[in-house]
Inverse folding.
């Protein structure tokens, strides 16, 4: 060997020695029998064993006693067959019982006159493998939850120029419910499964999703076989691998919708029944009022006439009889007034003859006579276009509101106003009493309040009650003008 070649080899040895010592990866040189010839400091650190305890020993010394024979025999067999594994990963238990994952990179070194050696570069990949295994386990759990969820789950990617992109992932429930295979689904976009009349709603809620990152809404899906499925959808925006995605969970609410429809129909029937019963009640009140007025009124009128005739036949010296007849006459007059009061309470003639606003004026005056509570009245100048049933409903609500003020409010003033708001008639009754609280308002035993609200609801109206403790209560009746 010439001098130049010797210098090159010397420099190579020096370079190799430096790389061996400074490498962050473990390096190990073993002979054909698996005996350790050399190891670097990084390898000692990885296997947590000192160098002088490994040199000259089988490389399996770094492993647990239960693994030593197996790994050494496998190595010797591979070397003997000239089939050593060049790259692989493996989990081992070290001599001290610790479990670690290693990445191996092996290569043969054929040293002339020295036989065949194996150079192994070993990396501690425990943390990486732990993260990978956790990710695999997490994905496994996600897949299990994804496919075993009771609701349909869709994942879509947002794409430029489109509100939604195509489906990226769907679960088995979605496939079974809508009748598409997974392959078919991944060729569709979300709008393809939306029942056409709901497309505008879908676009509206999609825009809201982009603004708020989360939205819950209802629409109807259309299956492959044209079946319609009402669903409640909860959609979330999220980012996956730097791309914007949408996770949507669709719950089949067919049963709920059917139940709601049954309740709606039942409520409709009950309100119709309530309307009918109230109509009958008002008719009965009107009939009774007329019969009392006509029958008792006629009888009392005849009695008054008979008493007057009888009084005229008395002699001047019959003062005692005259006094008694006058007392009976006064009693008849009082009875007539009571009959008129009863008939007015049953059905005030003014409501039928002059309409709602004069009836409210009359009732406010009667209220002041009975209670002594002052009132202010702000009324419409124009005529009110309300049918008899609506007028009766508003009048009865007004009466109930005044009754509540008399019984519970301790008020000294009531402000009453009637106005028009768009196509509605609005009646407000506000007092300066103690004020109703929210508990009293929501009390299921407050039948008066419930009755007021039901009367208005029958005709598409609404009654709201607002109370401020110590300042009073305001009842607002809003009733549509014209047809319901």
């Amino acid at each position: 060997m010439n001098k130049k070649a010797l210098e090159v080899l010397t420099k190579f040895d020096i370079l190799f020695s430096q790389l061996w010592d400074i490498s962050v990866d473990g390096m190990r040189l073993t002979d054909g029998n698996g005996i350790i010839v050399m190891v670097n400091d990084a390898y000692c650190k990885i296997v947590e064993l000192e160098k002088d305890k490994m040199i000259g020993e089988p490389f399996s010394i770094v492993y647990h006693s239960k693994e030593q024979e197996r790994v050494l025999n496998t190595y010797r067999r591979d070397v003997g067959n000239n089939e050593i594994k060049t790259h692989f990963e493996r989990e081992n238990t070290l001599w001290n019982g610790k479990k670690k994952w290693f990445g191996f990179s092996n290569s043969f070194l054929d040293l002339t006159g020295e036989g065949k050696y194996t150079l192994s570069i070993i990396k501690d990949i425990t943390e990486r493998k732990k993260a990978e295994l956790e990710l695999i386990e997490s994905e496994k759990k996600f897949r299990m939850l994804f496919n075993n969820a009771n609701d349909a789950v869709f994942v879509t990617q947002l794409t430029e120029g489109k509100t939604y992109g195509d489906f990226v992932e769907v679960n088995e429930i979605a496939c079974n419910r809508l009748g598409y295979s997974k392959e078919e689904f991944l060729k569709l976009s979300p709008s393809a499964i939306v029942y056409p009349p709901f497309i505008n709603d879908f676009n509206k809620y999609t825009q809201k999703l982009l603004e708020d990152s989360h939205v819950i809404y209802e629409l109807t899906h259309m299956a492959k076989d044209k079946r319609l499925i009402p669903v409640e959808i909860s959609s979330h925006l999220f980012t996956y691998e730097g791309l914007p995605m949408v996770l949507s969970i669709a719950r089949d609410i067919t049963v709920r919708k059917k139940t709601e429809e049954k309740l709606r129909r039942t409520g409709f029937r009950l309100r119709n029944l309530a309307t009918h019963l109230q109509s009958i009640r008002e008719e009965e009140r009107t009939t009774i009022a007329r019969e009392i007025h006509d029958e008792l009124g006629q009888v009392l009128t005849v009695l008054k006439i008979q008493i007057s005739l009888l009084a005229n036949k008395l002699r001047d010296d019959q003062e005692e009889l005259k006094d008694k007849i006058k007392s009976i006459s006064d009693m008849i007059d009082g009875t007539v007034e009571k009959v008129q009061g009863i008939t007015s309470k049953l059905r005030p003639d003014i409501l039928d003859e002059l309409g709602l606003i004069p009836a409210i004026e009359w009732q406010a005056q009667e209220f002041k006579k009975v209670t002594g509570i002052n009132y202010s009245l702000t009324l419409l100048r124009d005529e009110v276009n309300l049918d008899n049933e609506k007028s009766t409903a508003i009048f009865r609500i007004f009466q109930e509101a005044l009754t509540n003020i008399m019984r519970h409010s301790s008020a000294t003033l009531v402000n009453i106003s009637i106005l028009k708001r768009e196509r509605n008639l609005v009646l407000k009754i506000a007092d300066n009493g103690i004020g109703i609280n929210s508990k009293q308002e929501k009390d299921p035993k407050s039948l008066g309040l419930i009755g007021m609200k039901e009367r208005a609801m029958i005709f598409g109206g609404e009654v709201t009650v607002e109370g401020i403790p110590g300042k009073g209560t305001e009842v607002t009746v809003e009733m549509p003008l014209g047809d319901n």
About this structure: The mean pLDDT is 82. Residues 3-124 form a domain with the Beta-Lactamase fold (CATH 3.30.450.20). The two ends are 114 Å apart (CA to CA). The longest strand covers residues 99-111.
